[in-house]
């Protein structure tokens, strides 16, 4: 994960190690190197610009510490700025005062929504919740069955249209699932919705219709980290089309660069809440900006 950026930054810092104090030229050269490292990691340009401006300002400014040498100071500043662009604090689910808490997943096909629904359900169960999974992706032929398999693995029931009831209406399924959750005392409802291969008006409208029918407490935008800056463009389209409260980043295990993780919060203003790091249900956790920054600088 993020190997390229990690290697690049390590070499920037090691070139500072022999310096007694940093001249303006040293700071400019360092800023240039960090800029290249971020651009190579596929971080969006506005994010890179802000990041570099902050690092330069802080390295030049009054933050001269007696306890740290110049290289350590730059590492500290970069670490803090990384945490900042990754979202600062860990953002947890905001549970509804009156259950069920409704979590709706939105994103493109293949982003990892159905897998994430199972992961989130398993994780919530481990936290003492009683989730219900809802199959409102009636577009993809095997989506309902896939969710049922995932639900079984997670040990979480799945609410799906009755077999043989014809093509279901995803909005009706979502609406009925809330009644079912109340009836069977599920405290969280996780709604899997249909995606398409690309941003599509019909898909967006369906997500809007489901949103309006169930008033989710949290809308999670699920996105594949491996697509880099494309993730940012898709995020923007979903933000404009449906809106969302947080991001679930998937396939971080295959993301050598880190551009999506480092850009999406700054561009959309919404925090990354969950990280998915493999195909197994347990490859999933809350997203911790400080730990992620630590891994990049490790
Ligand atoms: P959906 O179309 O958005 O519902 O996506 P799926 O949940 O069907 O996932 C698409 C593919 O990505 C499947 O083959 C998953 O096993 C795989 N996948 C999902 N999450 C991850 C992850 O975090 N890491 C890896 N390596 N693969 C994942």
Automatic annotation (TrEMBL):
Keywords: Cytoplasm, GTP-binding, Hydrolase, Nucleotide-binding, Ribonucleoprotein, RNA-binding, Signal recognition particle. One of its GO terms (molecular function) is GTP binding. It catalyses: GTP + H2O = GDP + phosphate + H(+). Its main location: cytoplasm. Its EC number is 3.6.5.4. GTP binds at residues 107-114, 192-196, 250-253. The keyword RNA-binding applies. It is found in: Cytoplasm. It is an enzyme of class 3 (hydrolase). GO terms for cellular component: signal recognition particle. It comes from the Bacteria. Coiled coil: none annotated. The keyword Cytoplasm applies. Residues 271-284 form the SRP54-type proteins GTP-binding domain. GO terms for biological process: SRP-dependent cotranslational protein targeting to membrane. Involved in targeting and insertion of nascent membrane proteins into the cytoplasmic membrane. Binds to the hydrophobic signal sequence of the ribosome-nascent chain (RNC) as it emerges from the ribosomes. The SRP-RNC complex is then targeted to the cytoplasmic membrane where it interacts with the SRP receptor FtsY. Composed of three domains: the N-terminal N domain, which is responsible for interactions with the ribosome, the central G domain, which binds GTP, and the C-terminal M domain, which binds the RNA and the signal sequence of the RNC. Belongs to the GTP-binding SRP family. SRP54 subfamily. Part of the signal recognition particle protein translocation system, which is composed of SRP and FtsY. This is Signal recognition particle protein. It comes from Thermomonospora echinospora. The lineage of its organism: Bacteria, Bacillati, Actinomycetota, Actinomycetes, Streptosporangiales. The chain holds residues 1 to 298 of 523 of the full protein.
């Amino acid at each position: 994960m993020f190997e390229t950026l990690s290697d690049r930054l390590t070499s920037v810092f090691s070139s500072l190690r022999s310096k007694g104090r940093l001249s303006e030229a040293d700071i400019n050269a360092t800023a240039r190197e960090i800029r290249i490292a971020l651009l190579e990691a596929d971080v969006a340009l506005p994010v890179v610009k802000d990041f570099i401006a902050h690092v330069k300002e802080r390295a030049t400014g009054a933050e001269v510490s007696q306890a740290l040498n110049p290289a350590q100071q730059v590492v500290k500043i970069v670490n803090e700025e990384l945490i900042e662009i990754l979202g600062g604090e860990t953002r947890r689910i905001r549970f509804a005062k009156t259950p069920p808490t409704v979590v709706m997943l939105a994103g493109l096909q293949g982003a990892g929504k159905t897998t994430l629904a199972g992961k989130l359900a398993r994780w919530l169960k481990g936290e003492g919740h009683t989730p219900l999974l809802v199959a409102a992706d009636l577009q993809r032929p095997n989506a309902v069955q896939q969710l049922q398999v995932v639900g079984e693995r997670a040990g979480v029931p799945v609410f799906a249209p009755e077999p043989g009831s014809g093509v279901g209406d995803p909005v009706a399924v979502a609406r009925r699932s809330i009644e079912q959750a109340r009836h069977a005392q599920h405290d969280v409802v996780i709604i899997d919705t249909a995606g398409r291969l690309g941003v599509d008006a019909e898909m967006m409208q369906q997500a809007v219709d489901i949103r309006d029918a169930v008033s989710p407490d949290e809308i999670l935008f699920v996105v594949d980290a491996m697509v880099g800056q494309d993730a940012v463009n898709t995020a923007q389209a979903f933000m404009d089309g449906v809106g969302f409260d947080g991001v679930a980043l998937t396939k971080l295990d295959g993301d050598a660069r880190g551009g999506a993780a480092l850009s999406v919060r700054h561009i959309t203003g919404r925090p990354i809440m969950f990280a998915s790091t493999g195909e197994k249900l347990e490859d999933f956790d809350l997203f911790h900006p400080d730990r992620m920054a630590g891994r990049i600088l490790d």
